[in-house]
């Protein structure tokens, strides 16, 4: 693949490709930002950024800190959140390209760049600034630095740089904690890398990176280990499901992976990674490095899919090294023991199909608007990004008209997405409190100081359930409540953002959150089940 392209031309083509992608994606942000609002997670993390801390309900602090910095630099502008996503994703591609160059050559690096960039997953990473943006960048950087340190194991500077990146990765997402363990596995199971086990710098780096976790561990200790309990819920199997449901979930996992990576690209990446694991004894050290950072984890996720649903983004970082391996395999520069010429010949068709997928991914949100198909649950994949800013403006009008605006706080019911979207999209950017229907700690809002600090204040209450009266427990918390009206923001196809709006006069009490019982977290529910009315 690309055999006639010399190394210098491939390097320049890759640079132009990255620059072109950056410019195109930056220009795409203008119509995208004008048409779509922040997704719920983005607004949630933005709200974290207004109150920097050493930890949060479900994640380490990095995404909150980054959102706080973005908000401070841009006066809480939505375009800045989108642009940050673009910068992180582009930098990740550049680091992945550099690592492939270092391991193989510039032509292979170009193929790896095409495999990685031409996917719906990478498009999403460049548009939505969620927890995966800093994680992917940290993982790519750690792969590059670890290989550099392995090549020159006596370089203290390289090991210190890796320790810093690992530490920042640990502060980005829990998945990064697996990286030092894989480093040890690489040293154990690769004879050429085994001297690392006798290198003090290797252990200084691996164990030293964990010191970045100390403030987060102390924070969790002070909050009843809430993040660990949340993580436990994600890996708890569903005992209520039968055999058919488990089988369906298992096959859903590769189907989703093939969708976000495009089918042929995913097939090549998966076969190269798992095939490399199968042929482990016949691999050289570069190949083993790429396989160990991908295949065992992918096998584990396939196993996990047998017992529960697996979110499409969970194994994302393990596809990074596998992408490099697949690029080298289709070019005949790796996995000589894995002789599957018909599959290897799919490199160019995979790129062509990926281009089609990417064009459709970029065009579909704009086409749905042009054809009047907004809100269609089968076609409009961006429905969850619609209607929030209009809703915020309508909600802001109620706050402006409150009889005691300086002593009125905002209270959201339902999924935590309602609280975060109100906080971001209301022009006043108010602090929003959340009333959990079950009285449990189910989000960061229950960890922050409760509305007890607002006793005697009025509250604007936004209830997304428009077919019920206000809950008695909430009604009794105020001296009196009155319904002010309703908000309905249509997003198309008979769907919309709907709220009943109440005014609670003079808060009398606020319930203490119940301790966690191990029941399924509300964070696992589809927010659209409450947010969008059919």
Numbering strands along the chain, what is their spatial order in the largest sheet? 2-1-3-5-4
What's the rounded overall pLDDT mean?
92
Residues in helices, as a percent range: 55-70%
Question: What is the count of β-strands?
Answer: 5
Largest sheet: 5 strands, mixed
Give the H and E element order.
Answer: HHHHHHHHHHHHHHHHHHHHEHEEHEEH
User: In angstroms, what separates the terminal alpha carbons?
Assistant: 49 Å
Strand content: 5-15%
As residue ranges, the low-confidence spans are 518-534
Properties at a glance:
alpha/beta; five-stranded mixed β-sheet; disordered C terminus; 56% helix; 23 helices; 534 residues
Describe the structure in your own words.
This protein is 56% helix and 8% strand. It has a five-stranded mixed β-sheet, with helices on one face. The chain has 534 residues and is α/β, with parallel strands linked by helices. It has a domain at 384-531. Helix 21 links the parallel strand 1 and strand 2. Helix 5 crosses helix 17 (318-330). It is built from 23 helices and five strands. The longest helix has 29 residues, at 7-35. The radius of gyration is 25 Å and the shape is globular.
């Amino acid at each position: 693949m690309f055999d006639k392209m010399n190394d210098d031309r491939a390097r320049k083509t890759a640079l132009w490709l990255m620059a072109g992608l950056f410019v195109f994606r930056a220009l795409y942000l203008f119509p995208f930002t004008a048409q779509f609002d922040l997704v719920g997670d983005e607004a949630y993390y933005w709200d974290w950024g207004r109150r920097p801390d050493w930890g949060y309900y479900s994640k380490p602090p990095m995404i909150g800190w980054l959102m706080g910095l973005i908000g401070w630099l841009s006066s809480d502008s939505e375009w800045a959140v989108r642009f940050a996503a673009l910068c992180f994703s582009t930098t990740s591609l550049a680091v992945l390209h550099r690592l492939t160059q270092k391991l193989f050559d510039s032509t292979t690096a170009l193929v790896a760049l095409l495999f990685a960039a031409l996917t719906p997953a990478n498009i999403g990473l460049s548009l939505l600034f969620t927890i995966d943006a800093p994680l992917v960048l940290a993982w790519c950087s750690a792969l590059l630095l670890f290989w550099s340190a392995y090549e020159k194991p006596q370089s203290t500077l390289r090991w210190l740089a890796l320790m810093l990146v690992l530490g920042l990765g640990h502060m980005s997402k829990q998945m990064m904690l697996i990286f030092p363990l894989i480093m040890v596995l690489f040293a154990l199971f690769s004879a050429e890398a085994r001297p690392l086990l006798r290198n003090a710098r290797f252990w200084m780096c691996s164990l030293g990176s964990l010191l970045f976790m100390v403030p987060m561990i102390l924070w969790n200790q002070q909050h009843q280990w809430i993040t660990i309990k949340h993580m436990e819920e994600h890996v708890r199997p569903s005992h209520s499901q039968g055999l058919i449901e488990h089988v369906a979930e298992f096959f859903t996992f590769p189907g989703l992976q093939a969708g976000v990576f495009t089918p042929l690209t995913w097939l090549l990446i998966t076969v190269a990674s798992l095939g490399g694991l199968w042929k482990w004894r016949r691999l050289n050290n570069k190949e083993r490095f790429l396989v160990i950072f991908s295949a065992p984890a992918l096998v584990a996720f396939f196993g996990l899919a047998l017992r529960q649903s697996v979110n499409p983004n969970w194994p994302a970082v393990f596809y990074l090294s596998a992408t490099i391996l697949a690029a080298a395999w289709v070019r005949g520069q790796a996995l000589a023991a894995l002789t599957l010429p018909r599959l290897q010949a799919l490199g160019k068709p995979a790129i062509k199909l990926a281009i089609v997928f990417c064009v459709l991914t970029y065009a579909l949100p704009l086409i749905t608007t042009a054809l009047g198909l907004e809100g269609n649950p089968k076609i409009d994949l961006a429905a969850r990004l619609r209607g929030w800013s209009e809703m915020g403006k309508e909600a802001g009008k109620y706050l402006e008209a409150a009889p005691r605006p300086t002593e009125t706080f905002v209270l959201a019911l339902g999924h935590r997405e309602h609280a975060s979207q109100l906080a971001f999209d209301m022009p006043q950017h108010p602090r929003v409190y959340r009333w959990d229907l079950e009285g449990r700690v189910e989000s960061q809002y229950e960890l922050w100081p409760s509305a007890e600090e607002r006793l005697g204040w009025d509250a604007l209450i936004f209830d997304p359930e428009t077919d019920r009266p206000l809950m008695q427990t909430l009604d009794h918390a105020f001296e009196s409540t009155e319904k002010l009206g309703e908000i309905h923001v249509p997003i198309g196809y008979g769907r919309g953002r709907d709220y009943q709006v109440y005014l609670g006069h003079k808060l009398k009490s606020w319930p203490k959150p119940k301790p966690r019982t191990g029941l399924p977290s509300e964070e696992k529910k589809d927010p659209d089940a409450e947010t969008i009315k059919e």
